[in-house]
Design goal:
The strands form 2 sheets. Strands 3-2-1-4-5 form a 5-stranded mixed β-sheet. A 5-stranded mixed β-sheet has the order 8-7-6-9-10, with helices on both faces. It is of the alpha/beta class. It is globular. It is about 40% helix and about 20% strand.
């Protein structure tokens, strides 16, 4: 029987479907203003593909997990991301999940979560920080990474997104090339993430979340950690994948 996982994050809402022991479907849509609306949009997308989340086993996770009315139960992000990363990458290592509003570091051993750390006090070191800074520079996040690759070493010292944005404005006013500012922005996130990762148990490292498609960020994080960071395109769905795995065996609803 198919099972469904729903991960409603602060930026994107994702769904994953397991069927016959394999990952059969992944879906994503912007969360937008309402987590309830995002959950409903995912439900409609799933129905269009032949999966009814109101009848099939379904587990919800993420920032907006309580806003998924058709879920059988809700499960914490740490548990679901650990489960999903274990499926995608294997049973042991340090999972780094860079989300829109927080960054999580999850240590897995034998596919089980044994330790975790989380930065949810400030958006510095998260995807939201990159979004804000890319908007300030008038570029997409993909363009930000391309510019950063060509940039010269430049730093942003502020730990707060608001003050960091002021630094960026100051650099723009001084005529600092956009490539150098982009370099500073991404290095700032890499530095904050690597400090959090230091609370884990070391390699192998796995990246999940929205930045898994950002090759430059993956390279820079690996360079800072001194070990390669493994990731793949499905890694952004790790939370939903874990939720779908946990939904297996729940039983069909009437």
């Amino acid at each position: 029987m198919p099972s469904i996982g729903i991960d409603v994050g602060s930026t994107a809402a994702k769904a994953a479907v397991f069927e016959n022991g394999r990952l059969a479907e992944t879906l994503v849509c912007p969360t937008g203003f309402s987590s309830v609306d995002a959950a409903e949009r995912l439900a409609q997308q799933l129905l269009a593909r032949g999966f009814d989340p109101r009848r099939l086993p379904c587990v919800a996770t993420g920032y907006g997990r309580v806003a998924v009315p058709y879920a059988d139960r809700v499960v914490t992000e740490i548990t679901c991301h650990g489960k999903g990363a274990g499926f995608l990458f294997g049973g042991g290592g340090t999972v780094v999940d860079v989300g829109g509003q927080d960054t999580k570091v999850i240590v897995l051993r034998g596919g089980k979560v044994v330790k975790f750390a989380m930065n949810d006090k400030c958006s510095a070191g998260t995807g939201k920080f990159l979004e804000v800074m890319a908007n300030r520079l008038g570029v997409s996040q993909e363009e930000l990474a391309r510019l950063a690759r060509a940039g010269a070493p430049t730093s942003i010292s502020s730990m707060c997104t608001v003050f960091a944005e002021s630094e960026v404005i100051s650099l723009i006013g001084k005529g600092t090339p956009r490539e150098d500012i982009a370099y500073a922005v991404i290095e700032s996130v890499v530095e904050r993430v690597s400090v959090l990762v230091a609370q884990g148990k070391g390699a192998p490292y796995f990246l999940t979340g929205g930045l898994c498609d950002n090759g430059y960020f993956v390279e820079r994080l690996g360079a800072r950690l001194g070990e390669p960071v493994a990731t793949e395109s499905r890694a952004r769905f790790a939370g939903a994948v874990g939720a779908a795995l946990l939904a297996e065996g729940e039983g069909r609803r009437s």
